[in-house]
Design goal:
Largest sheet: 5 strands, parallel
Structural class: alpha/beta
Helix content: 40-55%
Radius of gyration: 35 Å
Number of helices: 12
Strand order of the largest sheet: 1-2-3-4-5
Shape: elongated
Strand content: 5-15%
Number of strands: 8
Order of helices and strands: HHEHHEHEHHEHHHEHHEEE
Distance between the termini: 136 Å
C-alpha cells in the first residue's frame, strides 16, 4: 500500500482525534466533575455540621424542657403561705371537733375521732396517681406526665407534722410511688419534729407502687402499710389499663407486702450522710439517716394492717386474704389469671390474718398497751370475734376464699349469725 500525502494527513488526523478529544472535551469535563465532587464534599460537610448543630439544639431544647419540667415539679411541691395557714386552721378545727365529740359521746363510747384521711393522689388508670417518673403513652405526653399530687410535697409534709403534733393518726391514700415517698417524708419529718411518743398510729393506704428505696422506710419510721390485698393480682384492669402506662419495671414494684412486713435488720438500713441527703431526696427518698430513725424496727408496731376499701371492692375479707396468700384470684373467678403477681411478695395465711385483725386493731387505738385491746384472743381482751365455717389452715391455700363467717360478736354481743 502506497502512502501519499492524503493518506498521511488522514493518519495524522486519525491519531489527533483522541488527543484533541481529551484536551478539548474530556479534560475540561473531568475538571468540572472534580470541581463538582469537591463542591458536593463541601456541601456534605456543611450538611453534617448543620446536622450536628441541629442535634445539639434539639438536645439543648430537650434538656431545657426537662429542666423546666423539673422546676415546675419542684415548685408544685412547695406550699404557699396560704396553704400552710389553711392546713393549720383545719388541724385546729379538727382538734376542737375531737374534744367536742369526746364530751358529747362520753368515755364509754366505742366511737373515737382519732384519724384524719389525706388524699395524696389518685389512681394510675386515669393518670392521676403521683409517680416518680413519667407515665408511658398519652398520659406521659400530656399535661401531667407524672400524675397529679392532690396533696403532695411540702404541703403534705406540713399537714402530717401538724396532725402528728395534735395527736391524730394520719391515714394517707397513696397509690403512686411519688405519693408514697412524699407520705413517708412527712412521717419522717414528724418523727424529727415531734419525737416517737405522739399517739398517732400513722398508716399509708393502698401502697400500689412503692419504689424499692422506700420499702425499708416503713419499718424504720414505725409506719404501717394499710393494704387492700384483693387488688394484688393480675386481672383485666391491671393487664389492660395499668401495665401499658407504667411499664414492666414499675409493674414489678406493686404491692410489696412481704418486703414491707419482713424488712431488713436495722443494721442493714442504708446510712445516708447529710451531704448525700439532698440528692437522696430527689433520687431515692428522704435524705435523713434512717438508721438513727429505726426505733420502730424493734418495737411492737405492726408493719401491715388491712381493709377492704368497700364499696370500691368486696367487703369479704376472705376473698382479699386469698389474694394476699396466693397473689392471684381464685381459679373459679371469671377474671382469674394463671400467672401470680410477684409471688415473692405473698404473705403467709397467719401474716394475712394478723394484718386483718391485730394490725387493724392497732391503728384504731385498740392494740397492746391501749385501754381496750382487741384483734387478738386472750384473757382481758375485748370479745370482738368472728367464727368461721372451717379451719382455713386445714385446707389448701387455693381454697381460702371459700371460708365463710358464720357468727360475729362485738364486745361479747352476737350481732351476726
Amino acid at each position: 500500500m502506497k502512502f501519499g500525502i492524503r493518506e498521511i494527513v488522514f493518519v495524522i488526523v486519525l491519531l489527533a482525534m483522541p488527543i484533541s478529544s481529551y484536551w478539548f472535551v474530556f479534560r475540561p469535563q473531568n475538571d468540572e466533575i472534580e470541581a463538582a465532587r469537591k463542591e458536593i464534599s463541601h456541601k456534605e460537610a456543611t450538611l453534617n455540621q448543620l446536622a450536628i448543630a441541629t442535634a445539639q439544639i434539639d438536645n439543648l431544647q430537650r434538656e431545657n424542657e426537662e429542666l423546666q419540667a423539673a422546676i415546675a415539679n419542684a415548685e408544685s411541691r412547695l406550699p404557699n403561705t396560704k396553704e400552710v395557714e389553711v392546713i393549720l386552721e383545719q388541724v385546729a378545727d379538727l382538734v376542737a371537733r375531737r374534744e367536742l365529740h369526746a364530751r358529747e359521746l362520753g368515755a364509754a363510747s366505742r366511737f373515737r375521732l382519732t384519724a384524719v384521711k389525706i388524699m395524696a393522689d389518685g389512681v394510675p388508670e386515669n393518670g392521676t396517681a403521683s409517680m416518680l417518673t413519667p407515665y408511658l403513652g398519652a398520659f406521659g405526653e400530656g399535661e401531667h406526665p407524672l400524675g397529679i399530687p392532690f396533696v403532695g410535697g411540702q404541703a403534705l409534709i406540713d399537714a402530717i407534722v401538724a396532725l402528728d403534733a395534735a395527736g391524730f393518726s394520719a391515714h394517707v391514700h397513696a397509690i403512686g410511688d411519688r405519693a408514697v415517698r412524699d407520705t413517708l417524708d412527712g412521717f419522717e419529718a414528724a418523727r424529727e419534729a415531734n419525737g416517737w411518743n405522739t399517739p398517732g398510729r400513722h398508716h399509708v393506704a393502698h401502697v400500689q407502687f412503692v419504689h424499692p428505696d422506700d420499702v425499708a422506710r416503713f419499718a424504720a419510721l414505725g409506719v404501717t402499710a394499710n393494704i387492700q390485698a384483693l387488688w394484688a393480682c393480675y386481672e383485666p384492669q391491671l393487664r389492660d389499663l395499668t401495665a401499658p402506662i407504667v411499664g414492666p419495671e414499675r409493674v414489678g414494684h406493686q404491692y410489696p407486702f412481704a418486703s414491707i412486713h419482713r424488712p431488713p435488720l436495722a443494721s442493714q438500713i442504708t446510712d445516708f450522710s447529710t451531704s448525700e441527703g439532698e440528692h437522696r431526696r430527689e433520687e431515692g427518698g428522704k435524705g435523713a439517716n434512717l438508721r438513727d430513725l429505726s426505733h420502730a424496727a424493734g418495737d411492737a408496731r405492726p408493719r401491715l394492717c388491712a381493709g377492704s376499701d368497700w364499696p370500691v371492692s368486696t367487703p369479704d375479707p376472705w376473698a382479699a386474704i386469698h389474694v394476699a396468700v396466693n397473689r392471684q384470684l381464685p381459679a373459679d373467678d371469671p377474671d382469674f389469671d394463671p400467672e401470680p403477681l410477684l409471688l415473692h411478695e405473698a404473705l403467709t395465711l397467719a401474716e394475712a390474718l394478723d394484718a386483718y385483725t391485730a394490725g387493724s386493731a392497732f391503728i384504731n387505738g385498740r392494740g397492746p398497751g391501749d385501754a381496750e385491746v382487741t384483734g387478738i384472743i386472750e384473757v382481758g381482751a375485748v370479745a370482738d370475734l368472728a367464727a368461721t365455717d372451717r379451719d382455713p389452715f386445714a385446707g389448701p391455700v387455693a381454697s381460702i376464699h371459700s371460708t365463710r363467717n358464720v357468727g360475729t360478736w362485738v364486745a361479747g354481743r352476737r350481732v351476726h349469725g
